[in-house]
Amino acid sequence: MPDDALIHDPDGGMPRLLEIMRRLRDPQRGCPWDIEQDFASIAPYTIEEAYEVADAIARSDWPELEGELGDLLLQTVYHTQMGEEAGHFTFDSVVKAISDKMVARHPHVFGDESRDKTADQQVADWEKIKAAERAGKAQARTLDGVAINLPALTRAVKLQKRAARVGFDWPDVAQVVDKITEEAAELIEARDTQSHAEMTEEYGDLMFVMANLARHLDIDPEEALRAANTKFTRRFAAIEDALATDGRTPADSDLAEMDALWDAAKMRERKSDKND
């Protein structure tokens, strides 16, 4: 029988949250929606909550971050409850696994190895340990274990980093730029002479090389694109604000006028940056 006293105890901590989830999934007393869910149906919510955590951090909204971290924690509890029901794992086994992993991956903190290492040396050691773990899981290939459902740009960079560790990489940024020029030309040719599927493939090739350039320049392509999205949103809002001063919307304007307003917004931003 679910523990009602624990569920309503504001100081119940982690056991309270686990009991709440057990109640939500209880076939007789639970929530019909929660009972119907499975790993696949909950996974999109897990990804969404992780992005909302990142968004709160980007905005330095610490009260919001507190709530979003709770939402993300709930996702872990949700999956572990379903895992326990199916006999796959439990919350305690998940906690033990990650604790064991952190101890094993930090021998310079929890073991006998020296802490007198550079950050690069620690990263290299970390990757060696991860490679050994993958080998133990029969993931012997270089690119094994890079999650398929990562954002595409992030996954591209991770794949390229793995390949680079075994020497499959351009040694110079100039060669990457040359490859971008080559792929852009192939995309234009596909647009003019090939099918939409072939054009899509060429576009993917160009994006993959652009991610490679970001890696060589030590740029996070996801972060760079998010910043570009924010800038576009901000400047387009400036266009709308300018048009609204005489009661118009973008639909009442034309490209030439909106382009001029865009340039004006860009100039204001540059002047503001110089004054800061």
Automatic annotation (TrEMBL):
GO molecular function: ATP diphosphatase activity
Known EC number: 3.6.1.8
Domain of life: Bacteria
Catalysed conversion reaction: ATP + H2O = AMP + diphosphate + H(+)
An annotated GO BP: response to stress
Residues in NTP pyrophosphohydrolase MazG-like domain copies: 37-110
Record-linked Gene3D superfamilies: MazG-like
NCBIfam families: mazG, PRK09562.1
Family, per entry: Belongs to the nucleoside triphosphate pyrophosphohydrolase family.
Protein name (database record): Nucleoside triphosphate pyrophosphohydrolase
Lineage: Bacteria, Pseudomonadati, Pseudomonadota, Alphaproteobacteria, Rhodobacterales
